[in-house]
Write a structure and sequence with these properties.
446 residues, Four Helix Bundle (Hemerythrin (Met), subunit A), 434 Repressor (Amino-terminal Domain), 9% strand, binds guanosine-5'-diphosphate, SRP54_N_sf
């Protein structure tokens, strides 16, 4: 997610971070590059202007430039501005405080991911909120649309309104409401018809359905890959119906982030959910602070910590954090990490969330790492002597052959492991440079 934007900004801030002192001109130069990076990311021009102006004004202040860590402070200012642009510090929740059945109306253009998102949200409501949900497709234009929702409903275990051929959208909406009341449904999701373009007929239909069902939430689904177009679509919809939020789909493939960064400012509507894949659990509540952290290449520290908290013993984690900060990350630590990674859903899932892990992740991908590789790496470390584990530099060619034999692997596997350990060590040093894990946390006010 947002890889190209993240790389560009990372380059700018590496330069800032590397300097002990900053002059006003340094900040202005950096901000020029930030401006270009945002424009290349397809962020709307007025949003870019406001962003750069705000950040520059704060960052050239004497209290920043004269501080001990000017680079970090500038990055913090950028981080805060990103959070604000993405929608602010709060997480937009669905408004479920009403007498059931609460209606959520899903609107959007064809192919935006509307039907998929409807099923994803129904699944969330059922599993995370313990709500009894029901879905109904009002799409009478696309022949297979109602059938598609029914199939998705079966997959996520949420009821769909039985299909009656020939009914109009308003008739279906009325029937859905009655049915929801009868069956004591908490939340009714109405998947309205899509169109290829925004047109008046579509808008009229939406208004009619809205008048009948008085939705608590009207969520517009747009495809983040369409960049500024997504924002334009949102603007046209917002002018016609009272949107309560946006679902931004295909964020998994969005390297640029222009739609996410422009949406709030241009439409005034919060992004409530992010679609992150084709699978029906690939949806996230959109949290601006987390997304900002990802864009700045800091990794999704909060997600990582939360995930770790589910599986890792606190004492272990504290001991490890301490060793990382002291730069004493050895093979025993790596082994412990590997075990934890296994229990946390594998390497890919994890590396993407860790700060500074992009390179290590690339190295892992290049070596075709999978779960079996985790076990093999464990075997390799198991074949090292106690001394070698603490000091991997001891591993000369002869020792590597011994370790490879002992673990039933090849010397090149041993080398790969050593390389990975090195990359992780480097990542840890980077964290240390930023003031250690505590410094990092403080920087983001977490
Ligand atoms: P609709 O016409 O707006 O109802 O669109 P669909 O829900 O049928 O989705 C169109 C295609 O986009 C399907 O193949 C979905 O699997 C895919 N899709 C939907 N959301 C996402 C997402 O967040 N990420 C990815 N990668 N694919 C998605």
């Amino acid at each position: 997610m947002f890889d190209s934007l993240s790389d560009r900004l990372g380059g700018v801030f590496d330069k800032l971070r590397g300097r002990g002192a900053l002059k006003e001109q340094d900040v202005r130069d950096a901000m020029r590059e930030v401006r270009i990076a945002l424009l290349e990311a397809d962020v709307a021009l007025p949003v870019v202007r406001r962003f750069v102006d705000q950040v520059t004004e704060k960052a050239v202040g004497q209290d920043v430039l004269r501080s001990v860590t000017p680079g970090q402070q500038v990055i913090k200012i950028v981080n805060d501005a990103l959070i604000e642009t993405l929608g602010g510090d709060t997480t937009p929740e669905l408004d479920l405080n009403a007498t059931p059945p609460i209606v959520i109306m899903m609107v959007g253009l064809q192919g935006s991911g509307k039907t998929t998102s409807t099923a994803k949200i129904a699944k969330l409501l059922k599993e995370k909120h313990g709500k009894k949900a029901m879905m109904a497709s009002l799409d009478v234009n696309r022949p297979a649309a109602q059938e598609q929702l029914k199939v998705l409903g079966e997959q996520v275990g949420v009821a769909t309104l039985p299909i009656i051929a020939g009914q109009q959208p308003t008739e279906i909406a009325t029937r859905a409401l009655q049915s929801a009341k009868l069956q004591a449904v908490d939340v009714l999701l109405l998947d309205t018809a899509g169109r290829l373009h925004v047109d008046q007929q579509l808008m009229d239909e939406m208004k009619a359905v809205s008048a009948i069902s008085t939705p608590r939430e009207v969520l517009l689904v747009v495809d983040s890959l369409t960049g500024q177009d997504a924002v334009n679509v949102a603007q046209s919809f917002a002018g016609q119906v009272d949107l309560t939020g946006v679902v931004l789909t295909r964020m998994d493939g969005d390297a640029r982030g222009g739609a996410a960064l422009s949406m709030r400012a241009v439409t005034g509507k919060p992004i409530k959910f992010a679609g992150t894949g084709e699978k029906l659990d690939a949806i996230e509540v959109f949290q601006p602070a987390r997304v900002a952290n990802r864009i700045l290449g800091m990794g999704d520290i909060v997600s990582l910590v939360e995930k770790a908290a589910e599986t890792v013993k606190l004492e272990d984690a504290e001991a490890l954090a301490k060793r990382m900060e002291q730069g004493k990350f050895d093979m025993n630590d790596l082994r412990m990490q590997l075990k934890q990674m296994q229990s946390m859903g594998g390497l890919g899932a994890l590396a993407g969330m860790m700060p500074g892990m992009k390179k290590a992740k690339a190295a892992m991908a290049a070596s075709g790492m999978d779960e079996r590789v985790l076990l093999r790496m464990d075997a390799i470390i198991g074949s090292m002597t106690v001394k070698e584990r603490v000091n991997p530099a001891l591993l000369n060619a002869k020792r590597k052959i011994r370790v490879a034999k002992g673990s039933g692997t090849q010397v090149q596997d041993v080398n790969k492991l050593l390389k990975m350990h090195q990359e992780m060590g480097k990542a840890m040093k980077q964290i240390k440079k930023m003031g250690g894990l505590k410094g990092l946390a403080a920087m983001f006010g977490k």
